[in-house]
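Loading example: each entry is read as four labelled lines plus one structure line.
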Amino acid sequence: MPRKRSYSRVTRQALTMLGKLIRIGRAERGLTAQELADRAGISRTTLSSIEKGAPGPEIGIVFEVASLVGLRLFESDERMLQVHSSRVDEKLTLLPKSVRHAVKEVDDDF
Amino acid sequence: MPRKRSYSRVTRQALTMLGKLIRIGRAERGLTAQELADRAGISRTTLSSIEKGAPGPEIGIVFEVASLVGLRLFESDERMLQVHSSRVDEKLTLLPKSVRHAVKEVDDDF
DNA sequence: TACCTTTGTTCATTCAAATGGACACAGCTC
DNA sequence: GAGCTGTGTCCATTTGAATGAACAAAGGTA
Protein backbone atom coordinates (compact mmCIF):
# COMPACT_ATOMS: atom_id res chain seq x y z
CA MET A 1 0.00 0.00 0.00
CA PRO A 2 1.23 3.47 -0.83
CA ARG A 3 2.45 5.57 2.03
CA LYS A 4 1.28 9.12 1.55
CA ARG A 5 0.88 11.04 4.77
CA SER A 6 -0.94 14.13 5.92
CA TYR A 7 -0.20 16.27 8.93
CA SER A 8 -2.53 18.46 10.95
CA ARG A 9 -1.96 22.16 11.21
CA VAL A 10 -0.93 21.82 14.83
CA THR A 11 1.73 19.32 13.89
CA ARG A 12 3.10 21.44 11.07
CA GLN A 13 3.18 24.47 13.34
CA ALA A 14 5.01 22.59 16.06
CA LEU A 15 7.56 21.36 13.55
CA THR A 16 8.16 24.81 12.11
CA MET A 17 8.44 26.27 15.57
CA LEU A 18 10.96 23.67 16.69
CA GLY A 19 12.99 24.19 13.55
CA LYS A 20 13.17 27.91 14.12
CA LEU A 21 14.13 27.49 17.76
CA ILE A 22 16.96 25.20 16.71
CA ARG A 23 18.14 27.67 14.12
CA ILE A 24 18.11 30.45 16.68
CA GLY A 25 19.89 28.31 19.24
CA ARG A 26 22.56 27.43 16.73
CA ALA A 27 23.12 31.06 15.79
CA GLU A 28 23.26 32.13 19.42
CA ARG A 29 26.00 29.61 20.00
CA GLY A 30 27.86 30.74 16.90
CA LEU A 31 27.81 27.37 15.21
CA THR A 32 27.80 26.88 11.46
CA ALA A 33 25.42 24.33 10.01
CA GLN A 34 28.35 22.07 9.24
CA GLU A 35 29.69 22.23 12.78
CA LEU A 36 26.37 21.44 14.41
CA ALA A 37 25.76 18.65 11.93
CA ASP A 38 29.14 17.16 12.77
CA ARG A 39 28.48 17.29 16.49
CA ALA A 40 25.14 15.60 16.00
CA GLY A 41 26.69 13.04 13.69
CA ILE A 42 24.44 13.90 10.78
CA SER A 43 24.80 15.57 7.39
CA ARG A 44 24.32 19.25 6.75
CA THR A 45 21.51 18.34 4.39
CA THR A 46 19.56 16.65 7.15
CA LEU A 47 20.14 19.52 9.55
CA SER A 48 18.82 21.86 6.89
CA SER A 49 15.53 20.03 6.59
CA ILE A 50 15.23 19.90 10.37
CA GLU A 51 15.59 23.67 10.62
CA LYS A 52 13.04 23.97 7.84
CA GLY A 53 10.58 22.01 9.96
CA ALA A 54 10.26 18.99 7.70
CA PRO A 55 8.19 16.11 9.12
CA GLY A 56 10.45 13.37 7.80
CA PRO A 57 13.58 13.38 9.97
CA GLU A 58 13.91 10.85 12.78
CA ILE A 59 12.76 12.20 16.10
CA GLY A 60 15.90 10.98 17.87
CA ILE A 61 18.09 13.05 15.59
CA VAL A 62 15.96 16.15 15.98
CA PHE A 63 15.93 15.87 19.76
CA GLU A 64 19.68 15.34 19.74
CA VAL A 65 20.23 18.48 17.71
CA ALA A 66 17.80 20.40 19.89
CA SER A 67 19.64 19.45 23.05
CA LEU A 68 22.97 20.33 21.42
CA VAL A 69 21.82 23.91 20.97
CA GLY A 70 20.49 24.05 24.51
CA LEU A 71 16.80 23.55 23.94
CA ARG A 72 14.85 21.93 26.74
CA LEU A 73 12.21 19.55 25.58
CA PHE A 74 10.70 17.10 28.03
CA GLU A 75 13.77 17.06 30.21
CA SER A 76 12.64 14.26 32.53
CA ASP A 77 9.67 16.37 33.54
CA GLU A 78 9.62 19.99 34.69
CA ARG A 79 7.18 21.71 32.37
CA MET A 80 5.46 18.65 30.99
CA LEU A 81 4.95 17.11 34.38
CA GLN A 82 3.63 20.30 35.83
CA VAL A 83 1.22 20.49 32.97
CA HIS A 84 0.06 16.96 33.56
CA SER A 85 0.25 17.46 37.27
CA SER A 86 1.41 14.06 38.38
CA ARG A 87 4.29 11.65 38.04
CA VAL A 88 4.25 9.71 34.82
CA ASP A 89 5.34 6.27 35.91
CA GLU A 90 2.86 6.38 38.73
CA LYS A 91 0.10 7.17 36.30
CA LEU A 92 1.29 4.45 33.98
CA THR A 93 1.16 1.65 36.52
CA LEU A 94 -2.28 2.68 37.68
CA LEU A 95 -3.56 2.42 34.14
CA PRO A 96 -5.39 -0.70 32.97
CA LYS A 97 -2.99 -2.82 30.94
CA SER A 98 -5.23 -2.83 27.93
CA VAL A 99 -8.06 -0.70 26.65
CA ARG A 100 -11.21 -2.72 26.48
CA HIS A 101 -14.36 -1.69 24.72
CA ALA A 102 -17.93 -2.32 25.78
CA VAL A 103 -19.34 -5.31 23.93
CA LYS A 104 -22.55 -3.53 22.95
CA GLU A 105 -24.43 -0.75 24.64
CA VAL A 106 -23.74 -0.82 28.35
CA ASP A 107 -27.27 -0.07 29.50
CA ASP A 108 -29.44 1.75 27.08
CA ASP A 109 -32.77 0.03 27.31
CA PHE A 110 -35.71 2.32 27.82
CA MET B 1 29.81 5.45 5.20
CA PRO B 2 28.03 3.33 7.81
CA ARG B 3 25.26 5.01 9.67
CA LYS B 4 25.40 4.00 13.31
CA ARG B 5 24.05 6.63 15.65
CA SER B 6 24.37 7.43 19.31
CA TYR B 7 22.02 9.47 21.43
CA SER B 8 22.73 11.46 24.55
CA ARG B 9 21.06 10.62 27.82
CA VAL B 10 18.93 13.73 27.64
CA THR B 11 17.63 12.73 24.24
CA ARG B 12 16.81 9.20 25.33
CA GLN B 13 15.06 10.52 28.40
CA ALA B 14 13.01 12.97 26.39
CA LEU B 15 12.00 10.21 23.99
CA THR B 16 10.98 7.85 26.78
CA MET B 17 9.07 10.60 28.50
CA LEU B 18 7.19 11.56 25.34
CA GLY B 19 6.36 7.93 24.66
CA LYS B 20 4.92 7.47 28.12
CA LEU B 21 2.89 10.66 27.89
CA ILE B 22 1.43 9.44 24.63
CA ARG B 23 0.57 6.10 26.11
CA ILE B 24 -1.12 7.78 29.06
CA GLY B 25 -3.00 10.14 26.80
CA ARG B 26 -4.21 7.26 24.67
CA ALA B 27 -5.42 5.33 27.70
CA GLU B 28 -7.17 8.37 29.13
CA ARG B 29 -9.08 8.71 25.89
CA GLY B 30 -9.94 5.04 25.86
CA LEU B 31 -8.31 4.34 22.53
CA THR B 32 -6.82 1.02 21.53
CA ALA B 33 -3.44 1.01 19.85
CA GLN B 34 -5.09 0.03 16.61
CA GLU B 35 -7.61 2.86 16.77
CA LEU B 36 -5.01 5.52 17.45
CA ALA B 37 -2.77 4.10 14.75
CA ASP B 38 -5.65 4.28 12.27
CA ARG B 39 -6.42 7.87 13.15
CA ALA B 40 -2.79 8.80 12.72
CA GLY B 41 -2.59 6.86 9.49
CA ILE B 42 0.20 4.61 10.69
CA SER B 43 0.58 0.95 11.63
CA ARG B 44 0.16 -0.43 15.11
CA THR B 45 3.77 -1.57 14.97
CA THR B 46 5.02 1.97 14.47
CA LEU B 47 2.81 3.31 17.24
CA SER B 48 4.24 0.67 19.52
CA SER B 49 7.82 1.79 18.96
CA ILE B 50 6.75 5.40 19.48
CA GLU B 51 5.25 4.60 22.86
CA LYS B 52 8.43 2.68 23.66
CA GLY B 53 10.41 5.84 23.04
CA ALA B 54 12.38 4.60 20.04
CA PRO B 55 14.55 7.25 18.31
CA GLY B 56 13.80 6.04 14.81
CA PRO B 57 10.24 7.15 14.00
CA GLU B 58 9.68 10.27 11.93
CA ILE B 59 9.12 13.35 14.04
CA GLY B 60 6.07 14.37 12.02
CA ILE B 61 4.33 11.11 12.83
CA VAL B 62 5.20 11.32 16.52
CA PHE B 63 3.94 14.89 16.79
CA GLU B 64 0.77 13.91 14.96
CA VAL B 65 0.11 11.09 17.40
CA ALA B 66 0.92 13.35 20.33
CA SER B 67 -1.58 15.95 19.22
CA LEU B 68 -4.20 13.24 18.62
CA VAL B 69 -4.07 12.27 22.28
CA GLY B 70 -4.19 15.88 23.37
CA LEU B 71 -0.56 16.58 24.16
CA ARG B 72 0.60 20.13 23.75
CA LEU B 73 4.06 20.43 22.33
CA PHE B 74 5.21 23.74 20.96
CA GLU B 75 1.70 24.85 20.13
CA SER B 76 2.80 27.95 18.27
CA ASP B 77 4.37 29.21 21.47
CA GLU B 78 2.97 29.37 25.00
CA ARG B 79 5.51 27.53 27.09
CA MET B 80 8.36 27.57 24.65
CA LEU B 81 7.99 31.23 23.91
CA GLN B 82 7.77 32.08 27.57
CA VAL B 83 10.93 30.11 28.11
CA HIS B 84 12.71 31.93 25.36
CA SER B 85 11.03 35.13 26.33
CA SER B 86 10.65 36.69 22.91
CA ARG B 87 8.97 36.17 19.59
CA VAL B 88 10.73 33.71 17.36
CA ASP B 89 10.38 35.29 13.95
CA GLU B 90 11.53 38.60 15.34
CA LYS B 91 14.62 36.94 16.73
CA LEU B 92 15.20 35.14 13.46
CA THR B 93 15.23 38.24 11.30
CA LEU B 94 17.55 40.03 13.65
CA LEU B 95 20.03 37.19 13.39
CA PRO B 96 23.01 37.43 11.03
CA LYS B 97 22.22 35.45 7.91
CA SER B 98 25.30 33.30 8.26
CA VAL B 99 27.63 32.38 11.06
CA ARG B 100 31.08 33.61 10.33
CA HIS B 101 34.19 32.65 12.19
CA ALA B 102 37.16 34.84 12.98
CA VAL B 103 39.87 34.25 10.40
CA LYS B 104 42.60 33.89 12.99
CA GLU B 105 42.91 35.45 16.38
CA VAL B 106 41.13 38.77 16.37
CA ASP B 107 43.80 40.62 18.31
CA ASP B 108 46.09 38.47 20.29
CA ASP B 109 49.51 39.98 19.78
CA PHE B 110 51.33 40.63 23.01
C1' DT C 1 35.55 46.21 -4.71
C1' DA C 2 36.94 41.09 -4.81
C1' DC C 3 37.30 36.99 -2.01
C1' DC C 4 35.72 33.29 0.44
C1' DT C 5 32.72 31.26 3.81
C1' DT C 6 28.01 29.88 4.79
C1' DT C 7 23.80 28.49 3.21
C1' DG C 8 20.00 26.48 0.12
C1' DT C 9 19.09 23.12 -3.00
C1' DT C 10 19.33 19.14 -6.18
C1' DC C 11 20.34 14.32 -7.15
C1' DA C 12 21.77 9.23 -7.21
C1' DT C 13 22.83 5.79 -3.98
C1' DT C 14 22.43 3.40 0.39
C1' DC C 15 20.13 1.65 4.19
C1' DA C 16 16.81 1.59 7.82
C1' DA C 17 11.89 3.08 8.98
C1' DA C 18 7.19 1.69 8.00
C1' DT C 19 4.28 -1.84 6.79
C1' DG C 20 1.25 -5.83 7.50
C1' DG C 21 0.78 -10.41 8.56
C1' DA C 22 1.67 -13.69 12.04
C1' DC C 23 2.04 -15.60 16.62
C1' DA C 24 2.18 -15.98 21.85
C1' DC C 25 0.52 -14.21 25.80
C1' DA C 26 -1.47 -11.11 29.20
C1' DG C 27 -5.64 -9.67 31.09
C1' DC C 28 -10.54 -8.20 30.90
C1' DT C 29 -15.38 -10.19 30.69
C1' DC C 30 -18.71 -13.52 31.37
C1' DG D 1 -12.77 -21.71 34.27
C1' DA D 2 -13.36 -20.55 28.84
C1' DG D 3 -13.25 -17.12 25.38
C1' DC D 4 -12.09 -13.07 23.34
C1' DT D 5 -9.57 -8.65 22.87
C1' DG D 6 -5.63 -5.88 23.19
C1' DT D 7 -0.70 -5.85 23.34
C1' DG D 8 4.27 -7.04 22.40
C1' DT D 9 7.21 -8.74 19.13
C1' DC D 10 9.13 -10.96 14.98
C1' DC D 11 10.11 -10.93 10.03
C1' DA D 12 10.20 -10.15 4.82
C1' DT D 13 9.13 -6.58 1.78
C1' DT D 14 8.57 -1.88 0.37
C1' DT D 15 9.69 2.83 0.35
C1' DG D 16 11.46 7.01 1.68
C1' DA D 17 15.03 9.25 4.93
C1' DA D 18 20.00 10.12 5.23
C1' DT D 19 24.02 10.70 2.82
C1' DG D 20 27.66 13.25 0.32
C1' DA D 21 29.03 15.56 -3.60
C1' DA D 22 28.10 19.37 -6.38
C1' DC D 23 26.67 23.97 -7.70
C1' DA D 24 24.64 28.75 -7.35
C1' DA D 25 23.71 32.44 -4.64
C1' DA D 26 23.78 35.24 -0.48
C1' DG D 27 26.37 37.62 2.82
C1' DG D 28 30.31 38.75 5.76
C1' DT D 29 35.40 40.27 5.51
C1' DA D 30 39.41 42.49 3.99
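The longest helix of chain B spans residues 9-28.
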